[in-house]
Amino acid sequence: MKTIFRNSVLGIAGLAFAGGVAAGPITDTAATTASVDATPVAVAVRADKPAVDKAKLVPHGVQGAQSRIDLTDEQVASTKAIIAATKKAGMDERAAVVSIATALQESKLENLGHLGDRNDHDSQGLFQQRPSSGWGTVEQITDPEYSTTAFLKGLKQVDGWQDMPLTKAAQTVQVSAYPDHYAQWEQQAADLVAEHWNS
Question: What is the mean pLDDT of residues 149-173?
Fold first, then answer.
């Protein structure tokens, strides 16, 4: 019965979309069924901007409890800069998810300068890279495109990173004192890539 109902809803949504008319609100019964079934009914996507395959964004499933923060305009701009640098490097959406999750953990997607006494050594930028560790100059690692490209260059050198859990791939590049903390940002990173990859 649920399948017949869902197929009917999909058919109606498809006709409404194809005809260029907006469908009315879902009835209470349909809303209840959709929340129990947890299967998306229909997604309108601009023809020139194909949807991102969400299965590729989190191919291994998330690990552990997930964190989420509301983003400012600056953090959204950082997200878009990471995605643009990932595309420019010729890497895929999964690489963008790993990069954004790493930056969420390291800086909450804020392009941090030197924090004085609160600074972790000389770590700066979105990925908290260190000039003294060879990541580049302060000017370079506080440039979102440069710092993302540097992170991705390190990621490319990790054999089989695509088949690793996100936290292991990120940790292999970052060598953090808290290697498991990257995992908590995977779902938000995937959501951001799904939202902004084709925007």
Answer: 95
The tens digit of pLDDT for each residue in 83-119 reads 999 999 999 999 999 999 999 999 999 998 766 555 5
- Asked if 151 contacts 127 with a C-beta cutoff of 8 angstroms, the reply is yes
Provide φ and ψ at 61, rounded to 5°: 75, 160
Cα 196 to Cα 167: distance, rounded to the nearest angstrom: 22
- The answer to whether 67 and 184 have CB atoms below 8 angstroms apart is yes
Could you write out the three-class secondary structure of the chain? CHHHHHHHHHHHHHHHHHHCCCCCCCCHHHHHHHHHHCCCCCCCCCCCCCCCCHHHHCCCCCCCCCCCCCCCHHHHHHHHHHHHHHHHCCCCHHHHHHHHHHHHHHHCCCCECCCHHHCCCCCEECCCECHHHCCCCHHHHCCHHHHHHHHHHHHHCCCCHHHCCHHHHHHHHHCCCCHHHHHHHHHHHHHHHHHHCCC
Neighbours of 173 (CB within 10 A): 23
DSSP bridge partners of 112: 125
**Alpha carbon distance 169, 199 (integer Å):** 26
Which of 129, 140, 141, 136 minimizes the C-alpha distance to 173? 129
Task: Classify burial at 157, counting beta carbons within 10 Å of its beta carbon; exposed 0-12, middle 13-18, buried 19 or more.
Answer: exposed
